[in-house]
From TrEMBL:
Organism per entry: Streptomyces muensis
This protein's GO CC annotations: plasma membrane
Superkingdom assignment: Bacteria
One Pfam family named in its UniProt record: BPD_transp_1
Membrane topology: Multi-pass membrane protein
Domain ABC transmembrane type-1: 70-262
Family designation: Belongs to the binding-protein-dependent transport system permease family.
Protein name: Carbohydrate ABC transporter permease
Gene Ontology biological process: transmembrane transport
Subcellular location: Cell membrane
Amino acid sequence: MRTSTAGRVGQYAALLAYLLFLVLPFLWLISTAFKPPRELGSLHPTWIPKDPTLANFRQAFDEQPLLHAALNSLIAALGAALIAVLLATPMAYVMARHRTRLARAATGWVVVSQAFPLVLVIIPLFLVLKNLRLINSVPGLIMVYVVWALPFALWMLVGYVRAVPPELEEAAAVDGAGRVRTLVSVTAPLLAPGIVATALFAFVTAWNEFFFALVLLKTPEKQTLPVVLTHFIGAEGVADLGPLAAAAFLATLPSLVVFAVIQRRITGGMLAGAVKS
């Protein structure tokens, strides 16, 4: 009994430490965004600004095209999420319903591909986009985001498909429905929560992505929001801390809101994948 209690206390302590590790930097970011210059340079910084101001936000919008960059990020994220879901849904259905050696090999490849570092794939992707004349374009960036999001979208949707009873599809087949009709009319409506969660996760991933956008987008009018944030850092590495914190806070809000909405659905999709029908 004592061992069980001590184990639970240790688990809660570890969870609390992890939450503090995640939350404290974000709270410090918010505090910095509202601090005036004299507090930013203080030798004794405080968590709560003594004289909060919105000047950092005004300066951030004056110095950089944040709204245009946010629009580029929104187009790239929405396009990547939509295309990834449209491709992953039928593929996940085949992988879940036809458990052949090829399907198992594809599932294993999906899992292994998530371990590939970004540097390993950026050169081949760059060469492909160069041949397609899609370098320095938002459509080219969308293609890269789709390639990067598709493995996780597949893995996630396979779990949802396996949670749908095959008997429903068998009943539809008895009534004369074909494969496509069954997928569209029977399976897809039941997969709606998983499709929404997968699309939103792909959206958050693309919205926050930095490395691909930095390499593939050159002109300022094509750059996404994470890349524009680096413009607040001077050539000598000195950051304009107040406006940078304000812009970073605004850039973080959409992904936080979206993830807060879908976190339960993501957990449900992961658990569904662990259930055997």
